[in-house]
Amino acid sequence: MAMMENVRPTEVIMGRLPHGSDLLEAITDICMKRNIRLGRVEALGAVTRARLGFYDQQTREYEYFTLEMPLEIASLVGNISLKEGRPMVHAHVTLADGEGRAFGGHLASGTTIFACEVIIESFGGPVFDRKFDPQTGLALWVDEK
Amino acid sequence: MAMMENVRPTEVIMGRLPHGSDLLEAITDICMKRNIRLGRVEALGAVTRARLGFYDQQTREYEYFTLEMPLEIASLVGNISLKEGRPMVHAHVTLADGEGRAFGGHLASGTTIFACEVIIESFGGPVFDRKFDPQTGLALWVDEK
Amino acid sequence: MAMMENVRPTEVIMGRLPHGSDLLEAITDICMKRNIRLGRVEALGAVTRARLGFYDQQTREYEYFTLEMPLEIASLVGNISLKEGRPMVHAHVTLADGEGRAFGGHLASGTTIFACEVIIESFGGPVFDRKFDPQTGLALWVDEK
């Protein structure tokens, strides 16, 4: 069953991620250090390279690809919840090259920050825990009630 | 006249939309059921197909097109307000294909969810009601004061 | 040093920006008039033309380019902070043309609104002041503690 729950805004954190660090890991680190177990994240900035995933809905595996060039982060939209009891950041990004062409996908490790400004909002509320979803093959939130 | 008003955050709802359902209708259904008449929505995920609109600023008509393929939802940014007294979701999406190429436009009915995680924030405040705007031909918020 | 601070939501403003005005300037004007010195902004809509920047990480200069055509604003993600004591809007946009192709980059002056719906959230908290960052050549937030 799908899941839709009321959550309660608790904290808002705003700042800049370190130059040269991994984008997904840097956001995850903040969530770990501040014990954020539920929330949303948004960001803009630029990367020196990107590694993105596309979920193949037939084979049910992520295909990863790398964009080996400087790119603007036109948008990063993501959420924070738990997987196996630990905070997991699920974020998708839109990137743009020097000619303005846009690329997008599931943010994977291997994306290196040039400069990145982030806003994280943490929520209190029910536990959002990712579990294997047989319908899609993905780790999704499941209503256990 | 344009309109710019203070609104008051009331609720935050987070969850997953049903696999196989229509993306725009699924968000609209939540707003209907929970009586959300003003707010914002964001989402990420994937679709099995998409139907988007582009507003032709000359002819003043939406041109709709369909992308008949699995796509990641790189971003969905939208708002909720009233049209003819009923909640209306206005959302734009950025989508990405298996090679990372990005597409975007006005989210139309006919976009089918593979997996979608959504955050909806409801607001209290003045009535935001969409009415015909002669300058653009669109249904926009109008300051009636 | 990078900077990551707790901020406190203060106001939410929702509305429509004037047809024909400059997108970046219209958002900046609202921040000036309402004395918003820290916050986030999101928007969707359409423009009659766009002017975007791409930061060249080698030469450390923005390259600007113009898209002389009607485009949907698929997303606008941005933040508000201070530069030389005045509110500065830093926003990135994803745009889409009549065939759904997406473009993106740093929003620059010279982007003309056809219709645009915006949500601005203002924050209280520490001063976020942009200063020259020698590592990137950009005006970024610096932790002065």
Q: What is the gist of this entry?
A:
Three copies of one chain form a homotrimer. The first copy, chain A, is mostly beta strands.
Provide structural commentary.
3 copies of one chain form a homotrimer. By secondary structure, chain A is mainly beta. The first copy, chain A, is 8% helix and 61% strand. Chain A contains 1 helix and 9 strands; from the N terminus they run βαββββββββ. In chain A, strands 1, 2, 3, 4, 5, 6, 7, 8 and 9 form a 9-stranded mixed sheet that branches. Chain A is globular, with a radius of gyration of 16 Å. The B-C interface holds B 2-9, 38, 40, 42, 52, 54-57, 63, 65, 67, 74-75, 77-79, 90-94, 102-106, 123, 125, 128, 133, 135-136, 138, 140-141 and C 9, 11-19, 30, 42-44, 46, 48, 70, 72-77, 94-102, 104, 114-115, 117, 119.
